[in-house]
Write a structure and sequence with these properties.
Layout: H1 3-25, E1 46-51, E2 54-59, E3 63-66, E4 71-74, H2 80-101, H3 105-116, H4 126-138, H5 140-161
Antiparallel strand pairs: 1-2, 3-4
Amino acid sequence: MRPKQIEQQMIQAKDYAQYMLAKAKDPNQNFLNYEPMCKLCLGTGSRTVYQYGKPYRKRCENATWDKDKNRFICAGNIGWQQLETENKKDLSCEIWKIVARENLKEGFMFFLKQDYQIKKLSDLLTQQLYTILRMLRSGRLLITLSSYNLSSSQQYQFQKAA
């Protein structure tokens, strides 16, 4: 590309960004469509369900076929908290199976407090739980946890000696 073309594209991008910011600040504009939306599927009609730590796609319970748009649309799911809790329980169980098998409970708890500033898994989002599970299954997090376990046992020995 020539420098003149690059400069022209930069000006166009800047103008478009200013236009979008002005539109977002204007209360009369419909920048976002604020129709009621399902918290699980975000209106797409299909949501992620976890079984034994594996994600599967499932049609949302309240999804209906829209003939005009020719696709499933979900206007909202009343019991979305319960469904989300079930997903979290499944992922938490799979995480604890790995942690218990590797005898890394102390290191894992230290990891949660250090990296996420939480005391229990249920405080995390479903996607965070799935990410931690994938890291445990791949072995990347096990190395970190074993080093946490080592350092925490050394800290205990130092505290005991003092």
